[in-house]
């Protein structure tokens, strides 16, 4: 069993609070930022050999950076929805709940992807709220608070985080 120190548990409480309350927004920011860098670099890398000028690839990098930042989270939501939709459809088909074949699998995967895309924002908020409040619970237990106090505080944090992010 891993034994952590008091400072580690306090850090876990702080990071859990940040994850529960602002985790969804931080994730959106990171996904958009990484997408912006990737698209900007792609614009830069493919324009540098063709354009021998020093300034034009830099301008194209900035254009790609802004385009990537704007479409980053939408593409992320779409990719997660498609992967989850296919996983659910494949699981249903492999267990015999759906007629086997590529056609029904594709249709079912797209239907599930559409359903997941419609609710993915709320699912991500729920996931971050539960993960953060779980970290707070573990940190409070590690600090030495009783079980019912730790459970009540972490449940309150989960409710507040859900209310703040879903309104």
What does the model show?
- This is TMEM198/TM7SF3 family protein.
- Keywords: Membrane, Transmembrane, Transmembrane helix.
- The protein has 4 helices and no strands.
- The chain has 167 residues and is an all-alpha fold.
- The chain has one domain.
- Helix 1 packs antiparallel against helix 3, helix 2 packs across helix 3 and helix 3 packs across helix 4.
- The model has no long low-confidence stretch (mean pLDDT 90).
Radius of gyration: 22 Å
Class computed from helices, strands and strand pairing = mainly alpha
Q: Give the biggest sheet.
A: none
Spans with pLDDT under 50 lasting ≥5 residues?
none
Summary, kept brief:
This is TMEM198/TM7SF3 family protein. By secondary structure, the protein is mostly helical. The protein is built from four helices and no strands.
